[in-house]
């Protein structure tokens, strides 16, 4: 049987995409559990779902009562298939089967404790209390006929419901994210309820991708921008392996937003692997000119993405590579597309540079290939290992395409009103024994599957991680204007929170590069590099210039927790950073959601 036939004949779980951030992650989880899964549009006709072994209704940013909210075909419930509804999918199920959904009184984001009624069926093998990850506003308040509440949390009485006769299940929380530690057990139970065998083999990604690329490219060659990060390097090596070195041209563009010494380090590593189809081009002056005076994050990303394309076109022209013979390849991975409204119902969180309008147009014309586009970071790393890349390349921390540009916050200097938010934050912080303030800048976040662009709050007090996490969750859940919480690490007292006019200039970027380098070197010195998943260092024009440390732990970047690094590390880096002339050093204590990993 061929690979494709194998896939076709396998049992499968269909996932209806209601626009949730985690929809694709769900598909991946089911594949990891050994069952083939496919994502289908929300409104897919019930008869097309006949061939499935079970159906999952994903989460999404809408409310069931909204006019244009995604809705499944009503005949879905006549198919007599097991159905699992998650978050918005859970609410949809209640709504369509005669239950009651209402706007939640508090928005609940982050951890919650699920009290399980009976550890059997969908909860087989689980304890009476399980940690789960919530991200929602609405909730189910009335059960449909035939259903029982099988789990609850403090804030949500019907956090899980089941009609075991019909094999219908609904969870308000997300079992697919790693922050629901036993979520995989729940999904496995659902797979068992669906009667699936768990024999789908994921090890053959390489062959699948090879077939797909050869089919699409025919005799064309590929031109690829390599940033030196895991994704683009794996993509380059993969294409080189499949198409041969003569058909692949790798180009590193120095856009002026890279780390200190980055171009040299990347070139040396790639040359050590024996590639000679890799080149470096310094375009930093073009990029800095293009973003002069820009403040708005989406605008920055759009300009940088488009400058990448125009610089690349110039290079192609100079190299005399005929566009009819060459296509563009990108190392885009799945989280890059979902957060740019990559699926029909997902809200736009931020535009990744490889999804800006010009690239989108090229994709639509079939001029771009993206071999890694359905993979997650950990899958890309697995592929990298399979292709024989050394650990230092496979385990590099991810670095965004627009680089330090999205970590260098800009401002036109006009103060934003934050008095009301200040008061609300103060009340909450005081009950935890902390002083607080709200900063007059904004950063991007993700709450309940939708983008937010709101103020960070800062808190000042003792370094108690559990308390800080609690406080951070309380503030972002209760204060509508705030999506992030920062802890002041140095100096001990609040100094100056005044906003100044500041743009993306070489001087500010150089200052950020120095702070970033201090962090990277100290992480390596204290053996912490492999303990965090990514460590953005951010500069904000507050009180002169301030630096924010944003170390996080994650496995697939769709959700993340802030990392709790040793005091010894924090003290060492903040001392060195203050010595650069930086006024304050903050530590970002926000999980994702409600914050995103990057600030813009
Ligand atoms: P967020 O900030 O959305 O980041 O939580 C998730 C992951 O994606 C990376 N990231 C990007 N990568 N182009 C990229 O190639 C981009 O425009 C971009 N923006 C964010 C981010 O560093 C994190 O690993």
- For CATH, the homologous superfamily of the largest domain is named as HUPs
The N- to C-terminal Cα distance equals 47 Å
Question: Architecture of the largest domain, CATH level 2?
Answer: 3-Layer(aba) Sandwich
Helical percent range? 25-40%
The CATH class of the largest domain is identified as: Alpha Beta
The helix tally amounts to: 17
Going across the biggest sheet, name each strand in turn: 2-1-3-4-9-8-7-5-6
Q: Give the DSSP E fraction (strand runs of 2 or more residues).
A: 15-25%
Mean pLDDT: 91
The description of the largest β-sheet is:
9 strands, mixed
- CATH names the topology of the largest domain as Rossmann fold
Number of strands: 23
- Spans with pLDDT under 50 lasting ≥5 residues? none
Give the helix/strand class: alpha/beta
